[in-house]
Amino acid sequence: MTADAAIHSIREVDSDGTIGLISSEEYPPYARPPLSKGLWTGDEGIEDVDLETSNMNLEMHLNQSVIKIDTDNKKVYDKNKNEYTYQKLLIATGGTPKKLPNIEEEGIIYYRTISDYKKLRDIVDKNENFGIIGGGFIGSEIAAGIKMYKPDAEVTMIFPESGIGALIFPKVLSDFITDYFRQNDVNVLTGESVESIIKEDKTYLVEAQSGKKFKFDTVIAGLGITPNIKLAKEANLEVDDGIIVNKYLQTNDLDIYAAGDVAIYHIPVLNKFIRIEHEDNALMMGEIAGKNMAGKEIPFDHLSMFYSDFFEYGYEAVGILDPKLEIVEDLDESLEEGIIYYLEKGRVKGVLLWNVWDKVDEARGLIAEYGPFSSKDLKGRINILTIH
Known about the structure:
CATH architecture of the largest domain: 3-Layer(bba) Sandwich
Shape: globular
Structural class: alpha/beta
Number of helices: 9
Distance between the termini: 29 Å
């Protein structure tokens, strides 16, 4: 998605320059969020996820991986030893799904790509019993997606946290969401880590550390990603938990840019270097990187939003969501909707809009204010009466 956004924005500035896209994916660029959302609910079809990158007058080299960047000669080499030259280069390598430690069993779906979606959709059509490892974004969305697509499917979630989304939600909301999944016939096992997975005939035998055992037709894991920095590191670009870029999204080699899930950048409003793995960030960074590669000098200072949906609930959020920060809850008594503020030293660092929509800009504005804020200041600060 980052590459596609960059290509489109390059074409806004330069209609004639040559563009080459090298991608390890077998498909042209596509939208990722529907893979765990709209494609399961029927809101979108597989034909809707294509981003129409092929219409942008470029060469696409698909199912191909770059293995070396020669910064001195401005060349890159792919796994088949093909050579490509560049004037400006964008690294948008994203991340690789984290694997279950010490488990090598084949057939586990580490869900991320359109190929994973097609494989799982076929499995769900033919089978009934599914194990999902992980209680974060992907785990919760896939669990809900399978149940909404096939209500009689048996879906079990297993993860070590105390509740769904416990790494970003305060306990009261995480507990509410976990109970809600159980009410929708999802078997949720909290505080459990997977000890072993053994494939026996056509089923997977899963044993948790507690000794509990399960049998699934397939196992899906959503454990987050590890940013793909190896290529950049070997090219002597500055890296940490991602590729470090300046305000113009340039690396320490000013002809090489990085954007999307793999890039670490400074957010002035938070006064912090961060790496964000969500759609809004991928699109906005790609757009600015593309324009700057084509000759503009536009600083990237966008505070990206992110969102998720499951069953009848959803949320939008912006900033840092960490339940270890000071929490101010402005939720209705039923927990059906409301706002949660995340504070550090009296300053708002993040805002969660729970079942509240069209308020992201207000949340961004609040994060930009210095404060200090108290609980009293924030209750009712963002008006939710205009939600739809």
